[in-house]
């Protein structure tokens, strides 16, 4: 399993890639912009960043240069419609380990990720397991065991079983009042703290604009 961040502003493509890589056992979080990625993801916990170049705000080339300067060991795969030779050269000069031109097939992207993982020695790193016991309402990880409320256990279980570990809350339940939304926000804040207490690294639950929330660490059900 690898920790992968995907930066892609095309919603349909982003969600399809996240789902495809998650089905292969990776932990994947998608972001629609460089700014969203940098604000909500701890890059130190990421093995591979897959990024588009045509992004709103900061573009992919600039993001790659910043990542390579600050985290020289992170893997960078550029997945972009820019396929001209001079554009490929610019991509590699900006820090890309692998440059793929769209449309790229799922097998090609998968093979590229594993090739880069082998090159970086990521396969030898054991994943940090965090285990949710819904019945016992406990969360166990590298830093110890944390007690959950029934609501927190059920909420985390819903995250784990949801496609792409995403819970959609925006645009649904139009009659839901502000109090209900605030209550969910409080639960998310408490659950984040307990995930960190159990040993989760970085931001364990991210807010996704106009969608809801996404679990960004690997949690096993027992």
Give a verbal description of the structure.
About 2% of the residues have low confidence. The chain is an alpha/beta fold. 34% of the residues are buried. Helices cover 40% and strands 22% of the residues. The chain contains seven helices and twelve strands. The chain folds into two domains: 122 residues, Response regulator (Rossmann fold), CATH 3.40.50; 91 residues, Arc Repressor Mutant, subunit A (Orthogonal Bundle). The longest helix is centred in the C-terminal third of the chain and has 21 residues. The strands form three sheets. A five-stranded parallel sheet has the order 2-1-3-4-5, with helices on both faces. Strands 8-7-6-12 form a four-stranded mixed sheet, with helices on one face. A three-stranded antiparallel sheet has the order 9-11-10. Strand 1, helix 1 and strand 2 form a beta-alpha-beta unit. The radius of gyration is 18 Å and the shape is elongated.
At a glance:
This protein has seven helices and twelve strands. It has helices at residues 11-23, 34-40, 60-70, 85-93, 106-120, 150-161, 178-198, and strands at 3-7, 27-31, 48-51, 75-80, 98-101, 131-133, 138-141, 144-147, 166-168, 205-208, 212-215, 220-221.
Number of helical runs?
7
Mean pLDDT: 84
* Overall spatial form: elongated
Indicate the structural class: alpha/beta
CATH topology of the largest domain: Rossmann fold
Counting structural domains, the number is: 2
Ranges with pLDDT <50 over ≥5 residues?
Answer: 123-127
Query: SSE order, as H and E?
Result: EHEHEHEHEHEEEHEHEEE
